[in-house]
């Protein structure tokens, strides 16, 4: 049972304007600021020029006809942004022409909206339909912006104009999004977040406190739905959002915007202190879940989205306004966008004074689920010849946007993806590509397990690609630990496949330097245990970015035609390009990334396992999929198997200056043993370096002793990297 600590109130608030994200006090400060030079003034001038250009055109409020990316869809999006921007310019200039433009557009909407049926391009059974837009989500986003635009010009309107706009537009929209769409309004999902924020903010503007209470606590005000339930259920205690960073970024906007409106109107609710400051934690976690300014692309993610997205710009701005944390200014400077709000003015002034300090990205296991115990999203970071990151995903399913990729991983180095995740199969708002919606291949490829870097059993996806089953089960994070030379994490799950247990341990290592002349050397160690009482086929894909350079085994390559690797569960989209049967021992695959660095994967082979080289693109008649490469280690007719590999960045390729250095792996030998429940990975390099990684993945964090190659070893805690002297 959820216990709400916020102070409830049904008092009707006085209607002052503006009084949402921007207050009357903010307006006074902002009017003064634009009389001086600075980043805030530059942002204002640029916005005013853009608004002036747009309001010179005839107001267009078209009859809805198109899906995402189509003309009418995009026109209504541009309209709400234009109304919002024009409202701000009105407040700062006090020029009535801006308020009049917003008023006239709102009056057009007030005439149109009551006549609208459900959108003609609605997708039955998939999304809740809107009227202005093909799904109600877009309608809620429209209302979040438009309610603020109305708030900004409210003081300029006559009583009759207010009545016409409110009765013709805002009350019908609120009714449609709330009491007529209870399944969305009360849903614990980003659609529900946008909807409750839109209705609650409109409630503040129109003086309808009942709408605010319903937005906070659900239609029946019981707390089983509503904005606060979203805060309770969708974030872990560390501020990780269940659907992953891409949707955390998207959902952040209504969370921070409505929270700011609540604080402005009812500071006694202490919304930014709610649940130990969960909104501020969510903003920081969103930043942490990025690499080289782009979000980690797990689940249904568009890979080009990053920290400069407007949702996080607003989040960072509001967070700085509350905390004055100077490290947030580092992110704000990288975002290079100033928001025309009171908090935006604080950010701009601080940047003008160069008050920013470096933002610190950390190695963190972000607990998943509202209790933080439903698995975790693990981020490992270090700086070795450039910033490196491993993303390890023993996280929960992530609702309908989640992928079937338990225990998958990605690797980033020197600003680039090295071991990659496909993300979503979608061309966002490109109408020619399936109306801008998720492509059919999002289900047939992107969500399927073989599209990720984790074990596939019998060519079937985790949970048989059943979302409900996936949401009901999650991995267990066994541990997350770090020291100066390594960050290590281990997790397991036994419900992805019936009768099969999966356990993965990953380590990001910075090898100790023996002397100042030594080059820095990093490794990613991967130990994947699969156990069953019955025989299965186990496939472990690695989706890599770059050009294949060499292998230390013979390839049987398809030269004149390409067969398809399988028939379903994503395999139908893979061309079989080559096969190999490496001998027992060390199998090495080297590729070259666009960052000019070589990467060698060294794997332990038993002589029976095979390697498959594949490329995405089969059974793709409309060329919807990117043609990316992978290699798959396949172990057939096995009950138990342990995949062990080491990924080694090395060397440099510089075609501009025409030199290549260290293009060959230094890993000379690799062995694996399990002694007394301790995993041992022995790594020998060609330059006489020799290391032994010992990891205790049991549930007991204890003093560990073992014998290896005639010597006794001891370590306390979860792991230790031993430097074996030659």
Task: Give a verbal description of the structure.
One of its GO terms (cellular component) is periplasmic space. This is Alginate lyase. By secondary structure, the chain is of the alpha+beta class. The chain folds into 3 domains: 1-234, Chondroitin AC/alginate lyase (Glycosyltransferase, Alpha/alpha barrel); 237-247 and 267-361, no CATH class; 364-723, Beta-galactosidase, Chain A, domain 5, CATH 2.70.98. The protein is built from 17 helices and 29 strands. The strands form 7 sheets. It has an 8-stranded antiparallel beta sheet, with no helix packed on it. A 6-stranded antiparallel beta sheet has the order 8-13-20-19-16-15, with no helix packed on it. Strand 10 and strand 11 form a beta hairpin. Helix 8 packs antiparallel against helix 9 (209-217). The longest helix is centred in the first third of the chain and has 23 residues, at 71-93. It is elongated. The N and C termini lie far apart (60 Å). Residues 1-13 have low confidence and may be disordered.
């Amino acid at each position: 049972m959820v216990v709400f600590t916020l102070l409830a109130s049904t008092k009707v608030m006085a209607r002052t304007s503006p009084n949402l994200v921007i207050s009357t006090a903010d307006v006074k400060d902002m009017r003064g600021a634009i009389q001086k030079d600075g980043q805030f003034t530059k942002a204002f001038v640029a916005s005013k020029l853009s608004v002036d250009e747009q309001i010179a055109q005839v107001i267009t409020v078209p009859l809805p006809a198109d899906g995402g990316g189509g003309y009418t869809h995009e026109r209504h999006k541009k309209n709400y942004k234009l109304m919002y921007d024009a409202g701000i310019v009105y407040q700062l200039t006090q020029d009535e022409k801006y308020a009049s433009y917003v008023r006239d557009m709102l009056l057009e909407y007030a005439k149109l909206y009551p006549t609208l049926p459900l959108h003609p391009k609605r997708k039955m059974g998939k999304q809740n339909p809107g009227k202005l837009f093909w799904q109600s989500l877009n309608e809620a986003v429209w209302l979040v912006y438009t309610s603020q635009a109305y708030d900004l010009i409210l003081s300029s309107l006559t009583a009759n104009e207010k009545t016409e706009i409110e009765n013709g537009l805002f009350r019908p929209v609120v009714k449609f999004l709330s009491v007529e769409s209870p399944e969305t309004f009360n849903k614990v999902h980003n659609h529900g977040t946008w909807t409750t924020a839109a209705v609650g903010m409109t409630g503040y503007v129109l003086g309808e406190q009942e709408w605010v209470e319903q937005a906070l606590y659900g239609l029946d005000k019981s707390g089983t739905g509503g904005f606060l339930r979203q805060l309770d259920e969708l974030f872990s205690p560390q501020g990780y959002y269940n659907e992953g960073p891409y949707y955390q970024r998207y959902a952040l906007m209504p969370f921070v915007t409505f929270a700011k409106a609540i604080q402005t109107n009812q500071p006694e609710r202490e919304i930014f202190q709610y649940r130990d400051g969960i909104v501020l934690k969510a903003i920081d976690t969103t930043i942490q879940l990025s690499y080289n300014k782009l979000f980690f692309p797990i689940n249904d993610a568009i890979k080009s989205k990053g920290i400069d997205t407007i949702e996080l710009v607003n989040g960072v701005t509001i967070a700085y306004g509350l905390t004055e944390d100077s490290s947030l200014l580092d992110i704000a400077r990288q975002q290079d966008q100033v928001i025309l709000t009171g908090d935006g003015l604080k950010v701009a002034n601080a940047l003008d004074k160069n008050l920013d300090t470096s933002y610190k990205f950390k190695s963190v296991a972000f607990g998943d689920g509202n209790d933080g115990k439903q698995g975790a999203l693990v981020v490992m970071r270090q700086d070795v010849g450039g910033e490196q990151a491993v993303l390890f995903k023993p996280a929960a399913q992530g609702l309908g946007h989640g992928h079937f990729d338990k225990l998958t991983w990605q690797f980033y180095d020197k600003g680039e993806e090295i071991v990659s995740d496909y993300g979503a199969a979608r061309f966002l708002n490109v109408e020619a590509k399936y109306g801008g919606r998720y492509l059919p291949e999002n289900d047939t490829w992107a969500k399927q397990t073989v599209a990720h870097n984790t074990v596939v059993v019998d060519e079937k996806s985790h949970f048989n690609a059943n979302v409900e089953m996936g949401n009901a089960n999650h991995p267990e994070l066994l541990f997350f630990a770090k020291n100066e030379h390594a960050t290590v994490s281990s997790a397991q799950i036994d419900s992805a496949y019936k009768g099969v247990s999966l356990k993965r341990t990953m380590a990001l290592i910075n090898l100790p330097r023996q002397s100042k002349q030594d080059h820095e050397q990093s490794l990613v160690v991967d130990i994947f245990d699969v156990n069953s009482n019955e025989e299965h086929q186990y496939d472990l894909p690695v989706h890599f970015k770059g050009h294949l350079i060499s292998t230390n085994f013979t390839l049987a390559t398809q030269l004149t035609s390409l067969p398809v690797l399988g028939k379903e569960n994503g395999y139908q989209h893979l061309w079989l390009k080559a096969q190999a049967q490496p001998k027992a021992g060390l199998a090495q695959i080297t590729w070259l990334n666009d960052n000019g660095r070589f990467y060698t994967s060294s794997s332990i082979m038993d002589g029976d396992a095979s390697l498959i080289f594949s490329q995405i693109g089969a059974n793709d008649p409309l060329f919807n999929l990117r043609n990316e490469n992978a290699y798959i280690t396949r172990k057939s007719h096995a009950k138990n198997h342990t995949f062990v590999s080491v990924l080694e960045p090395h060397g440099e390729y510089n075609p501009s200056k025409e030199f290549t250095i260290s293009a060959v792996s230094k890993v000379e030998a690799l062995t694996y043993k399990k002694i007394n429940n301790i995993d041992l990975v022995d790594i020998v390099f060609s330059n006489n370096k020799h290391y032994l990684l010992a990891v205790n993945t049991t549930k007991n964090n204890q003093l560990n002793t073992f014998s290896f190659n005639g010597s006794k070893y001891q370590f306390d805690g979860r792991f230790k990297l031993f430097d074996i002297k030659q």
